[in-house]
Predict the structure.
Amino acid sequence: MKIAQDMAGYSLGQADLLRRAMGKKKVSEMQKHREIFIDGAAQNGVKPKIAEELFDQMVLFAEYCFNKSHSTAYGYVTFQTAYLKANYPVEYMAALLTSNSGDQDKVQKYLSTCVSMGIVVEPPHVNRSGVDFTPLKNSILFGLSAVRNVGQGAIECILAVREQGGAFESLADLCDRITCPEDPNIDPRAVNRRALEALIQCGALDCFTPNRNQLTQDLDYVLDWAQSRAKDRAIGQGNLFDMLGDTSMGSTNFEAVPKASPVEDFPPQEKLKLEKELLGFYISDHPLKSVQQAAKVLAPINLSDLADLPDNVMLSAIALIASIKPVMTKKGDRMAILVLEDLTGQAEAVVFPKSFERIGNYLIVDARLMVWGKVDRRDDRAQLIVEDAEPVESVQMVMVELDCQQARDGQEQYRLKSILLDQAPEESKAKVPVVAIVTDNHQRQFVRLGSRFRVQDPTATVNALKQANFERVWTSALTAELS
């Protein structure tokens, strides 16, 4: 700013506009200022060549410069956070998750980081969770504030009652104590049925019974009993169910509390779906965990890294469809905009009409797919242009087992390469991956061969390899060998 003011005759206001244009990397604005700067410098007797060189130096400097106080503060904070992450990883990640709890994309990214660091993230627990993410010895506990439909008042009520009377023993004990708290300052209406149902379905009450459907069915009966008992106590009258059990010393026989008939638990996928609706994430499990090993071998890209991947390169990913937005083009053709999700995060994907004709039947919310596509960048955002897809359960691959000596033999490598290339006459149709299993002293290592070695017909490929004396060759479903 001082250079522009003294050398080119800028006012302080104009110099600040120049600083802003350089800081924001606004090319069109900087070009305007370039002309103004050179003209102003010329009026002050500075040669145009010198003014141009100086302006170029200012632009280059603006790309990297920080003032000393700013860079010192950044360096100090970087040192602090690096130290905490290295020496107190559980506490550091719990604090990071709490401070970013309002940003689901960041939380999912940090949850993935926890997994890679070996830190278990446990679902909410009514007897252990606090308000926010809680660091434990080797794990992080989800906070109750992360559960949708459970308000701040409900959380304060549950924590206050738990603090006074200790851990809750059952659903009946929980409902009884929150509907008639000992402390008159606690609002007994703070925890409603909706909040309790949310706690059940996200897994916070699994400590009572892992059968979440049973707890859901029991809830109305137990809640009615607790509310009736609270009214009776308010007027000093005994309750019929209290009389059926021993209520001496203020204890309650919760075995006598009415409950629904026994029911089967929710199917695993339904439990996960409800869990995600309430927490925003899969915590106790994930539909893609069963194919996590396969994903690492066959589709090593993470959706969270999509922005860093090259354009116009065919990539593959194993992902879950989180949402679908059907679109109709002006010509009346169908296409779709998807949100794909893997264990690391989410990414937007587009399926254009030509691809939609082939794979439209696979595009269902919560479907697990192996997708092939290319990265496209629009408005500083990266998205995946999906060209093909197949349900994970249907994906086939060719397995080739090689001993260490074969794998190192250049002639054997050439023979294998030639056969595989012959099995892909049309590269665009060749999408069956080939995986080599290299064995050495009872150890096995999976090696995914490059995309150019994908084949079109797995059965024909196996036959061709066997005829060339590659004896240990077979086809397999994606999940069978690698999961």
